[in-house]
Amino acid sequence: KESSAASDVYKRQAQVRAILDDIVLSHIIVFEAAALQIELPDGAIKASVEQQLAALEREAAAAGKGSVEAYIQEALGMEPETYLKYAQEEAAIDLLAPRCVRAWMLASDHREIRAITVKTQADVDQVQARLAKGEPFADVARALSIDPSKEDGGRLPPVVRGSDLVLTRTAFAAEVGDVAGPIRDRDGMLFVYVESSPKPLEGLWQTIGPEVEASLAARDIEDPEFWQWKAQMLGRYDVNMEPFLDLVK
Length: 249
Hints:
249 residues, four-stranded antiparallel sheet, elongated
């Protein structure tokens, strides 16, 4: 019983920490969006909220409720007006977040890279032999890499200068067009191909917005990109979570 109680306390603490993390990130997104003067596409928030309401209507019908308003009150414990305001705020955050992250990435000193990860020396020899023959890095990645990125020819999310990760240090130590490696990494032996070093964007949303939107249309935000952004933002805004975390200890 004591073990179970301790586990429950830990779970509650983890839940509270996750909620606090979401709150902090939401505020950072608002600050960054304001600093960049981001303008969302016309009707984007309305369309997002309408999608949420349509989903709730289906849930209400499945639950045998006469109206979505009644379902919101009974199932969510909220007044419909309160829920609508909350949904609009959440939709705005969800729409601003990827634009903030991608704008930061494109405005930072970053590199587009591909990678090959292998386990054995025999595989290392194969990679080196095929690259030496002039075979495209992407083709070798598809054939030999053990990383899931092999499906996309070894393409990884861009890396931003400043991280202490082996991958990032390697990418910025090489020149565009170079292949670095093999380098020992926790997953095996790593080869890194520096595909490009794009010129960072400059300016506010009116200037950079079209390029950011086009980039998001071509590729969604990926977890490593978000993690890099989050680390930078927490450092930029110097968020001190200790007073909040003390409340859940």
